[in-house]
Each structure stands twice: as C-alpha cells, then as structure tokens.
Amino acid sequence: MFENMQLIYVAIPLSCLVASIIAGVFGKKIGRAGAHTITISAVALSFVLSLVVYFDVLAGNKFNGSLYTWAISGGVPFEIGFLIDELSATMMAVVTFVSLMVHIYTVGYMHDDPGYQRFFSYIALFTFAMLMLVMSNNFLQLFFGWEAVGLVSYLLIGFWFQRESAIAANLKAFLVNRVGDLGFLLGIAAIAFLFGSLDYSAVFSAAPQAAAVTVPFLGVETTWITLICLLLFVGAMGKSAQVPLHVWLPDSMEGPTPISALIHAATMVTAGIFMIARMSPLYELSETALSVVMVIGAITAFFMALIGLVQNDIKRVVAYSTLSQLGYMTVAMGASAYAAGMFHLVTHAFFKALLFLAAGSVIIAMHHEQDMRAMGGLRKPLPITYLTAVIGTLALVGFPGFSGFFSKDAIIEAVHLSKLPGSGFAYIALTAGVFVTSFYSFRLLFLTFHGRPRMDQEVRRHVKESPWVVTVPLVLLAIPSVVIGAWYVEPMLFGGFFGESLKVLPEHDTLAQLAHEVPDATGVELLLGIMLHGMLAPPFWLFLVGAIAAWVMYIDKPELPGKLAVKFSAIYRTLMNKYGFDEFYERVIARGIRSIGHVFWQIGDAKVIDGWMVNGTARVVGWFSGIIRHIQTGYVYHYAFAMIIGLFLLMTLFLKF
Amino acid sequence: MDAHLLSLVIWTPIVGGVLVLATGGDERAPIARKIALAFSIITFLFSLSLYGGFDKTTAVMQFTELAPWIATFNIHYHLGIDGISLPFILLTTFLTVIVVIAGWQIIQTKVAQYMAAFLIMEGLMNGVFSALDAILFYVFWEGMLIPMFIIIGIWGGPNRIYATIKFFLFTLLGSLLMLVAFIYLYQQSRSFSIPDYYLLPLDIKQQILLFIAFFAAFAVKVPMFPVHTWLPDAHVEAPTGGSVILAAIMLKMGGYGFLRFNLPILPDASHALAGVMIALSLIAIIYIALVALVQEDMKKLIAYSSIAHMGFVTLGFFIFNQQGIEGGIAQMISHGFISGALFLCVGVLYDRMHSRQISSYGGVANTMPVFASFMMLFAMANAGLPGTSGFVGEFLVILGAFKVNVWYAVLAGTTLIFGAAYTLWMYKRVIYGAVANDAVEALSDISAREVVFLALLAATVLIMGVWPFPVLDIMHASVENLVAQTAVSKL
Fold this sequence. Notes:
The complex is a heterodimer of chains A (657) and B (491).
Chain A: H1 5-25, H2 27-58, E1 63-73, E2 76-84, H3 86-109, H4 116-135, H5 139-157, H6 164-195, H7 200-210, E3 214-217, E4 220-223, H8 224-239, H9 248-251, H10 257-266, H11 271-278, H12 280-283, H13 287-308, H14 314-334, H15 338-365, H16 383-397, H17 403-417, H18 423-449, H19 457-462, H20 468-494, H21 510-517, H22 523-536, H23 538-556, H24 560-567, H25 569-576, H26 581-631, H27 636-656
Antiparallel strand pairs in A: 1-2, 3-4
Helix pairs in contact in A: 1-2, 1-4, 2-3, 2-4, 3-4, 3-10, 3-15, 3-20, 4-5, 5-6, 6-8, 8-11, 8-13, 10-15, 11-15, 13-14, 13-18, 14-15, 14-17, 14-18, 15-16, 15-17, 15-20, 16-18, 16-20, 17-18, 17-20, 17-21, 18-23, 24-25
Chain B: H1 5-22, H2 29-52, E1 62-70, E2 75-81, H3 85-102, H4 111-130, H5 134-143, H6 145-155, H7 160-189, H8 194-199, H9 204-221, H10 230-237, H11 240-265, H12 267-272, H13 274-293, H14 298-317, H15 322-353, H16 364-367, H17 369-382, H18 389-404, H19 406-413, H20 415-430, H21 438-441, H22 448-466, H23 469-487
Antiparallel strand pairs in B: 1-2
Helix pairs in contact in B: 1-2, 1-4, 2-3, 2-4, 3-4, 3-11, 3-15, 3-22, 4-5, 4-6, 4-11, 5-7, 6-7, 7-9, 7-10, 9-11, 10-14, 11-14, 11-15, 11-23, 13-14, 13-20, 14-15, 14-18, 14-20, 15-17, 15-18, 15-22, 15-23, 17-20, 17-22, 18-19, 18-22
C-alpha cells in the first residue's frame, strides 16, 4: 500500500516515545493543554498508522527484519527489530486504540490533578513500551518491552506518591513481577544456550529438531523445550497475574483509574498471554508445559472470581474479574486454542477497559468514593455511564451476541475438547466460573446503579454525568464491546485469521475440532448457529442463574448477603483474606528475608568478619606486642642478665652434646 | 603526539594537579576550580583521541611506550593499552570531570588541595590501567591510595580516621603480597614486563601460590566477600567525590587485576580455583544483597549494593567464556556510572540535610521533583532495568553462567529481585511518600550545576543501555584473546 512500510513501523512506537519525552521534560513549558495535545496526537497517529499496517498485513504484506544491532557477544548477535504479522498487527491496533481512548478520557479524569503532564508522559511512554513488546522479532526486545511496561506500571501505580498505600502497592507490583522476570530471563538464557540465537524465526525453525534434547532438572529428566516453556511461563504468571504471582494486580488499583483500564486490564497484563501465543511453536512441543499452563489458568479463573464476590470497592471487583478473565485466556493457551485466547484478549481489552472507565466515571461522579455500599441508584443521574456499563457487563458475562460470548464460549468448548491432563479440571473450573462471573458482575451493576441511593444528601445533590471527554471514550469502547465478537468470530476462530503467526499441531488442534460442531455455514447464519449452540450449553444457563441470584440478593432481598456472610463465615473470611496469599508473602517471605539480612549484617559482617577477623587480628597483634614490650625494658642490667643466662644455656648445650 | 598519548593521559592531570596546588590558599579558590576543570576536560579529550585512534580489530597492545627506567633490575617505563584497558581509562577521565563539577560549590575549604588530589589520582589511575611493567604498575597502584587516603582523611566525616586506617591496612596488606608475587615472577623470568609473564611456564604449585598473592591484592579492591567490610566504612566517611571515585573506579582495579594477571598468567590455577571464586561471587550477590536490604544509611546501602554488583564481575570472569568476561567488564563500566550517580544523588541530599539516614527523609519528590526523576532513573539502572546500562552486564553474565551451570544463573539471577528490592525500597522511603518533616519541606530542587552532572550521567547510562554495541565492540578482540590464553594450559 505504501512505498516505505518500514518507516511506518518505526514511526508507530517512536511517535509515542517522542511525545512522552516532550510532555515529561518540557511539561512545565508546554502546559497542560500542550501536554495532552501532543501525546493524544502522537497516539492518534500511532493508531491510524497501526490500522494502515493492520490492513496491509491482512493484504498479505508481512515483515521481519532488524532495526539495529544492540550488541554482539560470544558470537551471538542481539538485535532490535520488528516482526509484523497478523498477531502483532492485531495487538498494535488494540493497544493503540485503547490507549487513545484512555488518553482522551484522562483529560477529564485527571482534570484537577497537579501531576497532569507527568501522567500523560507516563501513559505515552507505556504505549511506546507496549508497542515495542508486541512488535519485537526477538526475545531480547521482548524482555525490554516486558520490563519497560513493568516500569511504567510501577510509576503509575505509585502516581499519587503521597499515599502510603499507593507506594506500597507499586513496590509490591514491581517485586512480584521481578520474581516472574527471573523465570523469564532464565528462559531466555536457556534459549540462547540451546539455540545460540534469540531471534524468533531462527529459534522456531530449529525448535522441532531440539524437541527431543533432554536435561536433568531437579532430579527429573525433562526436555529443554519443556524447561524453557515453563520458565517463560513463570514470567507470564508475573505479568499476567496468575496464581500465585497474582497478588500485585488487585493492589495496583491504587493507581488512577485510566491506567487500571489501560495497563491493568486491556494491555500490559495480557502481555503474558500474547507471549505464550507468540511462542506457540515452542509450547506445542511440550504437552507438560501446556498442561501446567492450563491448570494454573483454571485455578486463577475460578478462585480469583470467587474473591470478586465479596469485594466492596468497585474497582477491586473489576480487578478480580480481570484476574479471572486472564485465567480464561491462559487456559485457552494451555488447550492450544491460541486463536480463541487471542480472540478473548481482544474482546476483553474492549469490554474490560470499558468497565474500568465506566467505574472511573462513577468514581468521578461520587467525588472519589469507591465503596459500592455508599452508592446505589446511579442509573438516573448517570445515564450514559449506566448504559455503557450494562453493555460492558453483558459482554463480560457472555450474553449471547455480545463480544465476550463468542470468545469465552470458544475457550470453554476448546478446553472441553482438549485431551491433555488437567483439561477436565479446567473445564469444570471455567464453567463454574461463568456463574461466579455473572453473579459478581450483576452484583456490581445492581449495587452501583440500582436500588435506593445510599450516599449522603450532599454527595447526592452533586452527582452528575461526566463530561464528554469521559463519555465519548465510553461510547467508543462500547461499540466494539458489542460487535467485535460477532465480527471476528468467523475469521479468528475458524478462518485462520492469524495465519502462520500461531502454530498448532494437528493432535492439539481443539479449534479445528470445534469447527466440526458449529453449523457448516458463514455470515449471519453461522452467528445464529453459534448463538443457538451456546444457548443450549451449560455456560448460558449458569450465566442466567448467576444474574438471577444477584438480583435476588441485591435487589429483591438486600438483607440476604449479610445473613449468608454470617452463616458461612469461614468461607467469607477466607475470601476476604484472599486465601491468605498476602499475609503469607508479607509475614513469612518478606519478613523472613529481612531477618536473614539482619543476621548476615549484624552477625556475619559485624561480629564474625569485623569483630573476630579484622579487629580480632588487631587485638591479637596488640596483645602480643603488649607481652613482648615487657622484655624491652631499656635497663642495661636486664639485657646483661639475659645475655649471661643465654651464654650459660649455650655452654650447657655444647658441653652436653 | 600519538606516540605519547598514554603519557599525556597520565601526566596531564598530574601536572594540572601540581599547578592547582600552586594557587595556594582558599582566597584563590575560583581560579583553582577553573584550572582543575580545564585539565580534567583536556585529559578527557586526550582519552577520546585514544578511542579515536584505537584499532579494535586486534588484541595487540596499542599506543605502547617503552623506555628504560631502572636498568639494573630490567624495569621499564612501559605503557600500552588493549580493548580491556581502554574502557576504564575513558571511565576515569569522564568521571573526573564529573567529580570536579560536583565539588564546585560543596567544597569550600582547602579547595586547591581537594581538586589537586583528584587530578593527581586521575593520572595515577590511568597509569594503573596502562602500565605494562609490573613495578610501574605497582607504583601507580600504591600511589593512587595516597590521594584517596588524604581525601577521606581530610574532607571526610566524623569517623574518618578509623575508616582511613581500615581502608589503608586492608588494601596495603593485599598489595604487599602482590609485590612479593612480582618479585617471584622476576626471579623466574628476569623481567618485570607483564606480557613476558603470559609466556612464562609455571607449574601448578607456583601458579596456586601466585594466584593467592594476587587474589589478596585484587579481592580486597573488588571487594569480594569476606574482605569487603572496609568498603562500607570508607564510603560512609568519604566526601561525595571520594565515594564516586572509590566506587566508580578504584573498585574496578580489582577486576582489572584479575583480567591482567590471574587469568592470563595463571590459567591453570584460575581453573583450579574457579569453584572458590564462583562461590565467593555468588555469596557476594546474595548475602550482600540481603545485607544491603536492611541498611539504614543510604551510603552504606549503595556501598553494599556495589559489592553485590561486583559479584557479577568476578562471576563473569571465572566462568571463562566470552559472554561472561565481556559481561563482567560491561558491568564494571556501567557500575562506574551508576554507583557514581547514586553517590552524587546522596551527596545532593546530604549537602542540604546533612544526614545520610534513610529515616531522616520521606517525600522528597514533593519538594525536589526534578531530582526525584533523576534518582528514579539511577535507581532503576541499579536494579538492572533493560534500557539502562545496568542491564547489559548482568544479562551477559547470566547468559554466560547458564552455559556453565544452570544453578549459577539461577542464583545470580536473584539479583533481579533483591537488587530491585533494596534499591526501590530505599527510593520509596526517601523520595516517595508525604513530606516527612520540616527539613524536607524546606528542600530546594537541584541547581543548574547539579542538573549538568546528573544529566551527563543519565545520558551515558541510557545510551549504554540502548546501544552497548560500541562498548562491547572495542573489547571483543582482546577478550577473545584472553579467553584463548585462559584456555591454554601452562603445565
């Protein structure tokens, strides 16, 4: 389409970086309007160019090439470069679109914040880093982007750095992610060791030959590929918040709402999912790794959803929902239904960003109150927010026809067809998860927008719909939340949309099997067929039951939840304590490590090395010289006496022998 | 001029130092500062022309100078550099400029002497990195201790006498054993030329003993566990400029020594003792990181962080592959910038508040936002974030270590977690949070002069992180040659 597509590839991330630097360094000079104008224009440019690239890729023009050589060492070249194919083009379009919406929304949401320019600088920087991550053609740059989005996430969670809770949350997020990154980096080291290259195409083409090479690890003989996949997955567990490295994501809600939508729902947290999809040529070679991925995802999907049931903070409900949905995507990866997982990633990006931004709109209206117990009846004063929130909720719970319905059902069906160990458990967890999802989603909707208003009179009088910069992004996100599923279900799931960028072995190809179960049709006929099929399956009925249960408990009999909490107090407490992960990490791990540090410092360094060895040596020398000193009295007769004694001793020796 | 470029890099700052001294008392401080800055910049330019004229395709010593010095003992004024020494010379000349700028207003008493000490030390350090004669090396090596001893002893903190004595005794004890090693090598070869030693046949027993002697000198300097305890004390008492040079360059002498002496002269002993060296390195990485985590004093924390980072250097060297050694060198260069920058950051705070205790601070970002941004960058670099120079060395060493033993890589990799933990926890307590007290409330953000040196370092850290290619490129041939030397047994 264009003469020089490569220039466009470079311009897409770079425009965001340049805008970020200008807004960050010259923020004071260009002022608030200057900062948001330049970043919004840059991201808009990125978005338009991403669309150009997207259609160009669909037209069959792909690209894989390096930009420059980062370094060479030990014969291994480390390059920075781009791989533009269906997978990256899709991600680029989603990332830049959601980012653009969030940029616009921020103008309203952060209107009174003194750190306005800094915020725009950060989110533009984030967009740059995320784009570098998805556009990468090698593991090194993937890791660069991986860590850079982590950095911006850290900066943004702690954006309101005066708040103790915010700066505790961002440190926690960074450190937990670093645990994952350790696995990720070791995975990269293993790849460099096994393949002598970090280039995707080189590694993927050599992978099948290397599949049989084994390595003893922790006493178990396993293949290198399994080890690599598991190590990389540890990284994904950190970034995509899978149990047990999920603890940072709920706390990340300390950050401003726009970034919860952009980073902690739509884009960054899906980086782990994207990474596994990108590595499908490796994961396909290890059923062990796929099983682990599936089981971890299923645990996250179900158990994190349960915690969402008892949260009262509106953002935290959405956060646990995100954890759970990430679990769904992870399971899809484990079931080799990469396309379904990516499909869900895309639909989720729209409807979850929408839900977060809607929650943010509520929070603005409530003057930064986030507790749903102090809300209620907001549908009248906030009609647009309400309507878009309903759309987001219907998409999330998988109401037939809405985007989430197609993607989530596909995952559940694919897992059902998977034959890997753990797929039975995963199927049950995901299906049960539908009920829980439906319940907490409608609970949120009912508590916030329905029922009798529970806020005080003062707040109630001032509640009004948010300005257009907030509502327009809501509407623009609501549209794809409705239609994107129906639009893409055919090509993405059954039409080989992702082409060569995803690799599935025939024996794992659950989506191909699924294709046999849907009606052999196209267009509207296919959509109707899928919807009919879905309405006969258990998830649909579980969704209905969940919605009705929420209605009963929060509209019909509002006293019921309290009673249940008392009756099942053990379960309730467990959920409120989030299964005790936080306490365990804080009390046992963090405190334990600090205690060990103290022991090493006070006993190892201060007592043993300095006390005994260093100062001890000095003391021994001092003590010894103290004794020697007595001999050197300076009196001549002492020396004469010593000489005579010595003479006698020597003479005795000579005479005797 | 090209033929004497190395001499110029060594003697220009020393002559400059003498000139600065000649300005006399503090009433002529402004002129002393200007002369010092001029000479440091000229030296830096000389070192740049070293880089410009350097042939990176060969491992042969370049810019060599050879003149007899003490003919009786076959001692020569013998200079030359390869791709391993050049980066350190550039680091030294660059950081001296930074230190001169950093001390511009802060040092108000004995200004000329302060500036002179740094210039003279710069010349001597350049001497260490370019000496090819063992005795010349030894003279520079010991000589550079004297200015540092004076810097800590005069411009240092309240407990400076204890710190200087500890520092001096630790390092002197090690160096004396090195001198013994040189004399022994002279006995064997009738030469003090370091390149001659590379060809000298030595049996395993000789090698082990020599290794221990060199180890004593270099391990103290690095410093390696368990001879590291002088460093935190010395840093705490040293003035900011002293800390910068100490952490950024003096520590690198130890690593440089291992590369110049132990590995090529004693390949068999190096292999025999590699296990011990790796164990000590891993202890430094983990044990010291945990000690750093619980420090209450910012300078001590950074000092311990330095020891942990140096653990990567020695680990990289003693796995004997190119990625490890290049990673180790890259780590040393990068650590020079980052630790220097962090000590300068602490200095910026100390100049205003006269406290190094973490608990004295809190919420500095509220009153010093520009400073907070710089310190964020350096903190992240210290935590090894990709895109900063701190990542390059750690990444290559982990890659290299993985080839040798997966567990080395796993244990070394814990720095990803612990390095971030101690650095960012300190950052959180000092910079983030609500304004902790009136003193923090009254802080003023950094001045233009402070922006200049922090920005110079920030740019360097970022450029080396985004494009480390040139730094690694100049050392390839020399490191390849070193790896080959290490692989050939002398037995």
